[in-house]
Design brief:
Number of strands: 5
Shape: rod-shaped
CATH topology of the largest domain: OB fold (Dihydrolipoamide Acetyltransferase, E2P)
Largest sheet: 5 strands, mixed
Mean pLDDT: 87
Strand order of the largest sheet: 1-4-5-3-2
Number of domains: 2
CATH architecture of the largest domain: Beta Barrel
Helix content: 25-40%
Structural class: alpha+beta
Number of helices: 3
Order of helices and strands: HHHEEEEE
Low-confidence stretches: none
Length: about 140
């Protein structure tokens, strides 16, 4: 088996592994293998194939890290993300606060609620949901 076939078979194996991993990093390494295979196909020697394959794989990985597909979400980032929590921005009414917490009726159920930040002296009234931590609503003035 010549080098071109080995490069492309290994790259194809990485593409298949990528389908199971759910990240795009293996795809970038597979692109490096494809570049090494193309270098072999046009007649480059083994050292040139390795350099081109590594350069494309590393460059692809570095470029991927700077895109939204390469970044990992910060822990807890979903609790205040309106794209993930449909309740963010919805109005609720607080009748009274007790030691910095309240019970509010929202969507037909009683929820625990806390004010955003350290606002222990929050007055009763209308608020909006800014985050959800477990089963506790985090509220800000409407």
């Amino acid at each position: 088996m010549n080098n071109t076939v080995i490069w492309f078979v290994c790259g194809l194996g990485l593409v298949v592994a990528e389908l199971f991993s759910g990240t795009f990093y293996l795809l970038m390494v597979a692109l490096g293998f494809a570049a090494g295979g193309l270098t072999s196909y046009v007649g480059g020697d083994l050292v040139l194939q390795l350099v081109v394959g590594a350069a494309v794989g590393v460059a692809g990985t570095l470029i991927l890290r700077r895109t939204r597909w390469g970044r990992q979400a910060a822990p807890g980032a979903s609790e205040a993300n309106p794209d993930m929590m449909i309740d963010i921005g919805q109005p609720v009414h607080v009748s009274n606060w007790h030691n910095g917490t309240a019970r509010v009726n929202y969507r037909g159920a009683q929820w625990d609620a806390v004010p955003e930040g350290d606002a222990l002296g929050a007055a009763p009234g209308n608020f909006k949901i800014v985050a959800i931590r477990g089963s506790t609503l985090v509220l800000a003035p409407a």
